[in-house]
Amino acid sequence: MATSLPTTLGSLRASEFTPARLARSVKDELRENLIAKLRASAKSKAPLFPGIVGYEDTVVPQIVNAVLSKHNFILLGLRGQAKSRILRSLTTLLDPHCPYIAGSEIRDNPYAPISKFSRDLIAKMGEETPIAWMTPDDRFVEKLATPDVTVADLVGDIDPIKAARSNQDLGSELTMHYGLLPRANRGIFAINEIPDLAGKIQVALFNIMQEGDVQIKGYPVRLPLDVAIVFSANPEDYTARGKIVTPLKDRIGSEIRTHYPEDVEEGITITAQEAWSTRPASKIEIPHYIRQIVEQIAFTAREDKKVDKRSGVSQRLPISTMELVISNAERRALLHDETIAVPRVGDIYTALPGISGKIELEYEGEMRGADTVIREIIRQSVATVFDKYFANTNTQQIEQWFNLGGTVQLNDEQPASGSLEELKQIQGLIEKLSPLEINSKSKPEIAVSAAEFLLEGMYAHKRLSRTEERAFSAAEKKSRNDQASQYAERMREREIDREEAARSRTRRGFN
After folding, report:
1. Contact at 8 Å (CB) between 87 and 98?
2. Cβ neighbours of 423 (radius 10 Å)
3. How far are the Cα atoms of 295, 386, 444 from residue 350, in angstroms, in the given order?
4. Are 295 and 318 in contact (CB under 8 A)?
5. CA 9 to CA 100: how far, in whole Å?
């Protein structure tokens, strides 16, 4: 912290931190700094909230309106929609430095203290009262709401040990141990997953928000706090786990809905920003089609009927998947002492542990099994991205090579140079990779990755077959046995649908 900042009350009075400046409420401070930032961004085009992608035309304008209106607001959205990050970014709208009376638990305004401790200290030391300073991060207090949170956690409690040591009556304000909310005085208090708070805790919260007072162990305590309170919640929480009590909900000025990325490229930007892709021990080169497939997995899963849409598919899914994909490529490069690590489509299948924990399945999905559902989602995603590059590519020459008995296996057991030699045996394969800007001069690691993408796309469209050991061969011809198995599968799906419908009727009957 700068050494020129005043350290006593007397020197503070002679500085730029005048009583009028410190008399501003936190919401006034947020509003004034936001206005200055809006005017500056009109010239510089700098984002209001750095690191928040895809909300420029939807969520951010609503947040701006709420701050300009001096509202307490709530962000409603499914998991992985940057709600907590948005709340933390509000600290960029606070002053760089804020003074308070040193030793004050509730960070009293030096010119208008509300605690007995600070008033007594000023009466005793006068202009020599010590002053401490807060940064914007010091002024942000965050709490994850859980059902076991108590009034003492949020507001405070009587501390009998403090009373005994200071020889004070239990009813004295000096015996109070302050909770998180008073300690957030002159700052921002964020509560995540607010519906998880018990109703009586929410009532105590709104009472101190509205009236500035609360009773602790039967003793009335007056705390005219200056706090900007913001919340986050999952919309499903209103029915799944709890609800926001009506008096509290009525006092939340704005209800702002967040959302997932609008398109794949927007998602790629977020994943590139958040995923750990720059590794100190390896040179990583990620083809754009790999980024597209990883992101498409989340988009496909959000539309899949076997995935629970109420739970959502977090943006953390492509982030974790990308990190695992890079790690498998890095492992392969290290094993073969290759100069660069280039992820392949096959590496995406090794990321199943990072995907399975990020999605919740419906009954049909549970019946099929998580691994089966995820593999099918990856296959659909590969097909979608494949069509963007090879929709007009004639692959009959490649199919003919496989139909004549050709097979090729791509795994991590051999280096990229060895895999490339095998792939060159497939007539016309390398020439078909021109949409990916691959030619005979491309590095083996990059060329093999592109060729595997082409073969995986053909497998996704059922033009080729592939084993779990990643051996590609000719597509299986449809037989009567195949048709019978498909018919049996359709019958099984119908049976699952009937069972689910029966359970739904049973649940409605009990309601």
Report:
1. no
2. 22
3. 16, 20, 21
4. yes
5. 10
> How many other β-carbons are positioned within 10 Å of the β-carbon of residue 411?
11
Contact of 341 with 333, CB cutoff 8 Å? yes
For every residue of 69-97, DSSP letters joined together read TT--EEEE--TTSSHHHHHHHGGGGS-S-
Residues 6+ apart with CB under 8 A from 241: 195, 196
Residue 291: name the closest of 385, 190, 165 by CA: 385
User: In whole angstroms, what is the distance from residue 237 CA to residue 243 CA?
Assistant: 7
Residues listed for the chain: 511
- Alpha-carbon distances, residue 112 vs 25, 29, 32, 209 (angstroms): 12, 17, 21, 19
Instruction: Using the structure block, give the residue that is written with the tokens 């709600």.
Output: 83
Give dist(CA 157, CA 341) in Å, integer.
57
* In the predicted structure, residue 331 carries a pLDDT above the cut 90: yes
Tokens of 157: 């409690």
The pLDDT tens digits for 202-252 are 887 777 767 666 666 666 667 788 999 999 998 865 544 568 888 888 888
Six-digit token string for 506 = 């049973």
Q: What burial class does residue 243 get, using C-beta atoms within 10 Å of its C-beta: 0-12 exposed, 13-18 middle, 19+ buried?
A: middle
Chain-centre distance of CA 85, in angstroms?
8
Could you tell me the end-to-end alpha-carbon distance of the chain, in angstroms, rounded to an integer? 61
Structural tokens at position 265: 């490229």
Q: What is the pTM of this model?
A: 0.83
